[in-house]
Amino acid sequence: MSSNSCPVIDAYPFSKSEGDNVPHVQQQQMHDLDAQTGLSQLKAELDSIPDSVKTSFVHAKHVAPDLVSDEHLSQFLYAEDFDVKVS
């Protein structure tokens, strides 16, 4: 097999993209910014839902606030790829 018949590595989905050239610290800062923005949006979305519809959430806030902390809400955002409506 000649070297010309090998597929181009750049065509693979796991190959580096333009964002891979961004330093790790800068990527972390961008992620943190997205997380903070998403968290703010999620909180606003939760606030817009009447308490009568989110009774379990309201109960958890009073009984076990650590279960609905920013850290836990952020985990929902992360799991849903920062889609606030789905989270």
Task: Characterise this structure.
Helix content is about 50%, strand content about 0%. With about 90 residues, the chain is an all-alpha fold. The protein has a domain at about 55-85. Helix 1 packs across helix 3. It is globular. The model has no long low-confidence stretch (mean pLDDT about 75).
Oligomeric nature of the chains: single chain
**Beta content:** under 5%
Elements, N to C (H/E):
HHH
Low-confidence stretches: none
Please report the distance between the alpha carbons of the first and last residues: 50 Å
**What number is the mean pLDDT?**
75
Helix run count: 3
Q: How much is the radius of gyration in Å? A: 20 Å
Biggest sheet: strands, sense, closure?
none
Work out the helicity level: 40-55%
> Which geometry do the CA atoms define?
globular
Keywords summarizing the entry:
single chain; 87 residues; mainly alpha; 51% helix; globular
Provide a brief overview of the structure.
With 87 residues, the chain is mostly helical. Helix content is 51%, strand content 0%.
Write the layout of secondary structure elements.
Elements: H1 24-48, H2 55-63, H3 70-79
Helix pairs in contact: 1-3
